[in-house]
UniProtKB/TrEMBL annotation:
Coiled coil: none
Entry keywords, A to Z: Signal
Organism expressing this protein natively: Spirosoma montaniterrae
ASPIC/UnbV domain: residues covered: 549-616
UniProt keyword Signal present: yes
UniProt cross-references to PANTHER family, sorted A to Z: CARTILAGE ACIDIC PROTEIN 1
Listed Pfam families: FG-GAP_3, UnbV_ASPIC
Name the UniProt record assigns to this protein: RNA-binding protein
InterPro entries in the cross-refs: Crtac1, FG-GAP, Integrin_alpha_N, UnbV_ASPIC
């Protein structure tokens, strides 16, 4: 009885638990068992001694899925490709129940290794056919691709097929991965692109060599032209006639080799002609064949992409951020959790990296890539007029870079919130890339028999992991909702497709698995009846030889202003064909206005208003020829215009590729590639502004003297060893002309050069632009510096200096001191003639005294300073210092009668970051000075927050004389929990600190170890420990009373490190805007170059808010490794802007908005600008305006604005 009583006591809790369980939100996707669907297909692969992962790397690439209505009942049926098993065709009988008709259909595959599935009505008879790509077998006849032509239904309503590939001319015997039908020559019929992937020599997958781009490699894709329309025009066949395809690969320019795994047909530049995007495995470059509109293609991948995925697999192309431009996602193999990361991660080898460059390979990294389409930049067209869009790779920012061993990405709006989502398939049965396994195997390979290899294969690690589901946010970023969406079942998944299988208005999801039954996921969205999840489905009826209207485009705009685009091609993801229907998620919108359909032949139709939540059909017969305005859109008037070429300026920065990583193996970035600096001023006294461009190590700086026509003549400054970091033009010796301070920076020096190389330099101007080194003007510095900024902080009438210390060579991140250098030229003037020091011309020689200890002792403690500003932070009319650096928070040193002490409780001290730069401006028009601060950005694996900061542990841990610097990040452990792990892998850590090899002899053990395991408690306690919790480039709002509010700038400003910045009213609305430049070519090899930035113009609203402008709106496009940005008036008073690029050209832009330059004298540090609306904006005019940047000293005024009060030192 007691037992019964206790059991009854639990009943209320059980009822409550059952109630709560019933209230649990149902996942978006519900996997249906084969007993429900009737789909029992499993792509089972059996290893053998003659065929296994060790002798054929592509054994587990899997098979695809094809969706099409094969029996004409208006329901999508499913086709699965099998490798060692037969293909399967399932007819949709409604309610997500399917019937296997493979036997009667005759599509089993004839014993071939089938991979890709391409669904198409190839002969325009109204019945859907299937082209099956085949591979692997050594006998060519067993690799002949299959074209199953639909012969119509039998008496039972089941479709029958006949293989007619040979008759059609497309029984291609290459090692075909997948294929796509499209009309490349706009003649009205469908041509065929065949993607090839043949490992003809195992050495070619691993060894770098000269690439073949002449069509002679067996690994070149094929292009077949459909001759239907041409034959008809010549009367060579009945109508309709059976299509005949002809191989035109070579004459069409399909010449580049590659291990092809993914492809997409897309009009990427929107010129009305289809282009081809190909993702290639291993080191072979991805391809972007741009259609030349004359029957040929040109590979323009190098011009379009700054880097791509290394082992690129499947891809998809669709607009993810509502700008009406198609973006590109490609899959690779970077795991999410630390154990898997470190188990695969090899050592960084910069020599190999350089060899890639020498051999012409594009930069590639082992992670997914998401190429954000930035549109066709201003002036970006070749001589034939073919325009090419530019792409920014943002997968790390978007949150989709790490999805394991991934295959098929599919972009579609699965939850109907109006944003495209991303589904990814995953898994690999035998992990041949596991470092512990490969190390073992390489040691015993020669000793193994075939039977022993098979036994060894069975013991290999597997990658049976879940697929991924990412909800799109609509801004180019995604949220991982894999668990909530019900996609967390581990599998070996390859090809996948989506379709509305149950006709309920949402997209279901089908996956082809290795060694498991196929997954069929029912989308449960519609049954939840969400109020803000509307949709529209569009079917296409084309003409003649393209009845499905493949290649048609949809453009529309939603009430919230989002621009949308859809391109009609079913060949997406990996090896598969999705349902050939446009499925558009609309979010809250209940109608679509002005739905524009552009057909492949250029005809257009516009549906003025279409109700949501239905399927409509559009027909080419209802379309009309496009108007001339639609064909040639009006070019927008931009804010800036590149005039470099028209000025005849061809100045280019040159620098040797020094390998900083040889000194410290675990550096996060180089210190040798931060130049060149730009400094503007009238150096020869002719009344025009000139420009100095810093020189790299052992290279002279350039002196660009402006002429009366606005052009420049180029001269050089004196030879020197040191790398020029920051430059500053100012009157050091009070003689009325501009002298030059050059900060010596970089780390690329021999020990015997270090003292000379790190001595900063002052060059005295003779008044005519000739500069002479003043060897005794400066105290001994001995620091690799960053910036120099001037102000008369002590009010004695001359300009004093702040000089930032950047790094101690080979001891990063040990702090280095910065300097306050007092200018003593006025003191020299006060001396008697007997004791004064004069130069040859009788003038007093400049001399600066290090007074840091007396006036700013906190600078002696040091840091890693990147930039600084002399600025009045508290409106007390005294010049303070604002300093930013790496592993630091922005620091205000408040001027207290000539002594500088840190400002406390400012709101800045908690914002530690990788701060690069500063610029000042009253962005909210409230009368005080705000700031923009350039940071690392968020497109990085160094994801930092208060909860999960990035840290650095540094010191000579093993007492061997080498300074160790270990960065840590929070990655997931095997249980999905975040822990603090080393950023670098085992090889790099061991190269830096050999003792780690004794502690961890296997990659797996190292991958399970946190930093607290790897470093002993004694090592951690002695370490210099640094922390970063903020990587966003930010707006620092001055709240007054010495307090600030920091908030991130818009997302486009977070795609790469930001360096030079310029605050100026560019659009003439009375509010300060901003120009930002950046990118870093010297970042570590784990995540690769940080190069997603193309420069950015931010339009200010006068309230501290900013809107990012596209390159087409701003006219500003600087895609290189940009460092400095400055402005000045040309000889006619027009506003000009210059940008420097590391190992790149100096670019010059013209402001389109008329402005007037009001120069100021040497003592003025700020003015009040009276705006057209009567308000006053405080504008500081510093000596040194941002990172490595010094603009002309003055203020730019819009019409109706004037200078009011001036503030002097």
């Amino acid at each position: 009885m007691k037992f019964v009583h206790q059991s009854c006591a639990w009943l209320p809790l059980l009822v409550l638990f059952a109630s709560l369980s019933g209230c649990k939100e149902k996942p978006l996707f519900e996997r249906l068992d084969s007993s429900e669907t009737g789909i029992e297909f499993a792509n089972t692969i059996t290893d053998s001694d003659s065929l296994n992962i060790l002798n054929y790397q592509y054994i587990y690439n899997g098979g695809g899925v094809g969706v099409g209505d094969f029996n004409g009942d208006d329901k999508p049926d499913l086709f699965f490709a099998g490798n060692q098993v037969a293909n399967k065709l399932y007819l949709n009988e409604g309610d997500l129940k399917f019937r296997d008709v493979t036997g009667t259909a005759g599509v089993g595959g004839q014993g071939r290794w089938c991979s890709g599935v391409s669904v198409v009505d190839v002969n325009a008879d109204g019945k859907m056919d299937v082209y099956v790509s085949t591979t692997l077998h050594k006998q060519a006849a067993r690799r002949a691709n299959l074209l199953y032509v639909n012969q119509g239904n039998d008496a039972d309503g089941n479709p029958r097929f006949r293989d007619m590939a040979a008759q059609y001319g497309i029984a291609d015997t290459t090692y075909t991965t997948h294929s796509a039908f499209f009309d490349y020559d706009n003649d009205g019929d469908l041509d065929l692109y065949v993607l090839v992937d043949q490992i003809f020599d195992e050495k070619t997958t691993a060894n770098l060599r000269e690439q073949k781009s002449d069509g002679t490699s067996p690994n070149v894709d094929r292009l077949y032209r459909n001759m239907t329309m041409e034959r008809r025009s010549k009367g060579q066949g009945p109508q309709p006639s059976m299509p005949l395809f002809v191989d035109v690969s070579r004459e069409a320019g399909i010449l580049f080799e590659g291990f092809g795994l993914g492809m997409n047909i897309c009009d990427i530049n929107r010129d009305g002609w289809k282009d081809i995007y190909v993702t290639n495995d291993f080191a072979s470059n991805d391809l972007l064949y741009i259609n030349n509109r004359n029957g040929t293609f040109t590979n323009r991948a190098r011009q379009a992409f700054k880097h791509t995925s290394y082992s690129a697999m499947g891809n998809d192309v669709a607009d993810i951020n509502h700008d009406g431009l198609a973006d590109i996602v490609a899959m690779d193999m970077l795991p999410e959790d630390n154990l898997r990361k470190k188990s695969l991660m090899g050592g960084s080898n910069y020599f190999v990296y350089q060899e890639w460059d020498r051999l012409g390979y594009e930069h590639q990294y082992a992670r997914n890539t998401l190429q954000l389409n930035r549109g066709v930049p201003p002036g970006n067209a070749d001589t034939s007029g073919v325009k090419l869009p530019a792409f920014s790779e943002i997968a790390m920012l978007a949150g989709v870079a790490e999805t394991e061993w991934s295959w098929a990405p599919l972009l579609a709006d699965f939850d109907h919130d109006g944003h495209r989502d991303l589904l990814v398939t995953n898994g690999f049965p035998r992990d041949v890339t596991d470092r512990d396994f490969t190390n073992y195997y390489s040691g015993v390979n020669n000793l193994l028999t075939d039977a022993m290899r098979v036994e060894l294969i069975a013991k290999m690690p597997t990658v049976k992991v879940s697929n991924y589901g990412f909800r799109g946010r609509g801004d180019g970023t995604f949220e991982n909702l894999t668990d909530r969406w019900g996609l967390n079942e581990p599998s070996f998944s390859n090809g996948a497709a989506y379709a509305d299988l149950d006709d309920d208005g949402d997209l279901d999801y089908v996956i082809n698995n290795i060694n498991d039954e196929a997954f069929v996921y029912r989308n449960t969205l519609t049954e939840k009846n969400p109020d803000k999840a509307h949709f529209l489905r569009v079917r296409f009826v084309g003409a003649d030889a393209n009845p499905g209207g493949l290649g048609a485009m949809l453009d529309y705009e939603l009430p919230n202003g989002n621009k949308e685009v859809y391109e009609h091609t079913p060949y997406r993801g990996f090896l598969s064909s999705v349902e050939p229907v446009a499925h558009l998620g609309l979010g809250e919108a209940t109608t679509v206005k002005n739905l524009k359909v552009t057909w492949p032949d250029g005809r257009v139709q516009v549906l003025p208003s279409v109700n949501a939540d239905q399927t409509i059909m559009v027909k080419i017969a209802d379309a009309q020829p496009a108007t001339s305005s639609a064909i040639t859109p009006t070019q927008p008037v931009t804010l800036l215009r590149d005039i470099t070429d028209s000025l005849g300026l061809a100045y280019r920065h040159e620098e040797a590729d020094f390998i900083d990583f040889n000194q410290q193996k675990t550096l996060l970035h180089k210190f040798s590639e931060y130049g060149p600096a730009l400094a503007v001023g009238d150096v020869n006294g002719d009344g025009t502004q000139d420009m100095i461009v810093g020189g790299s190590t052992d290279r002279t700086a350039g002196l660009l003297l402006q002429q009366t026509d606005g052009r420049f003549t180029v001269k050089t400054l004196p030879a020197k060893l040191a790398e020029d970091a920051g430059l500053l033009l100012f009157d050091a010796d009070a003689d009325g002309d501009l002298d030059l301070y050059a900060v010596s920076g970089g780390v690329e020096y021999r020990p015997d050069q270090m003292t000379d190389a790190l001595q900063h330099r002052l060059y005295v101007n003779d008044g005519r632009g000739t500069f002479t080194l003043a060897p005794n003007a400066l105290p001994k510095t001995g620091v690799s510096g960053s910036c120099v900024k001037a102000a008369d902080y002590d009010g004695d009438g001359d300009l004093d200096l702040f000089v930032g210390g950047r790094v101690e060579p080979n001891k990063y991140p040990a702090p280095v001191r910065s300097f306050i250098l007092r200018n003593d030229v006025k003191r020299a003037e006060a001396r008697t003639a007997e004791t004064s020091t004069t130069n040859a011309s009788g003038r007093d020689s400049p001399r600066f005294t290090d007074v840091t200890t007396q006036v700013a002792p906190t600078l002696v403690k040091g840091g890693l300073t990147c930039d600084a500003l002399w600025t009045d932070v508290d409106n007390d009319r005294q010049i303070d210092l604002l300093i930013v650096g790496e592993w630091e928070a922005p620091t205000v040193l408040r001027n207290n009668k000539g002594r500088f002490d840190p400002l406390k409780a400012s709101g800045l001290e908690s914002k530690t970051g990788f701060w690069n730069s500063l610029t000042a401006g009253d962005f909210d028009n409230d009368g005080d000075t705000d700031y923009l601060a350039g940071n690392l950005g968020q497109n990085t694996l160094l994801r930092a927050s208060d909860e999960r900061p990035v840290r650095m542990y540094a010191g000579d841990f093993d007492n061997n004389g080498f300074y160790d610097a270990f960065t840590t990040v929070y990655f997931k452990n095997a249980k999905g929990q975040y822990e603090e792990y080393p950023y670098f892998g085992w090889d790099d850590m061991v190269r830096q600190m050999i003792g780690i090899k004794k502690r961890y002899i296997q990659y797996a053990a190292f991958g399970q170890a946190t930093i607290n395991d790897i470093l002993t408690e004694d090592e951690r306690s002695q370490a210099l420990k640094l922390t970063v919790n903020c990587t966003q480039t930010s707006y620092i709002e001055n709240l007054g009373n010495g307090t600030f509010n920091v908030r991130p700038l818009p997302l486009p400003a977070q795609t790469a490190p930001v360096f030079g910045m310029l605050a100026q009213d560019i659009d003439g609305d009375g509010n300060l805007d901003a120009v930002l430049v950046g990118n870093d070519s010297g970042s570590d090899l784990v995540a690769g170059r940080m190069d997603a930035f193309d420069g950015l113009v931010l339009r200010g609203d006068g309230k501290g808010g900013f809107t990012a402008l596209t390159p087409q709106q701003s006219g500003f496009y600087v895609p290189g490794y940009a460092k400095a940005v400055v402005s000045w008036p040309d000889a006619a008073g027009r506003c000009r802007l210059a940008v420097s690029q590391n190992r790149g050209a100096v670019r010059i832009m013209a402001f389109q908005q008329a402005q007037t330059f009001a120069p100021v004298d040497a003592k003025t540090w700020a003015v009040d600008v009276r705006l057209k609306n009567g308000r006053i904006r405080r504008q500081e005019i510093p000596y040194g305006s941002s990172f490595y940047s010094q603009s002309a000293r003055g203020v730019w005024l819009q019409p109706g604005e004037s200078v009011g009060k001036k503030y002097s030192f």
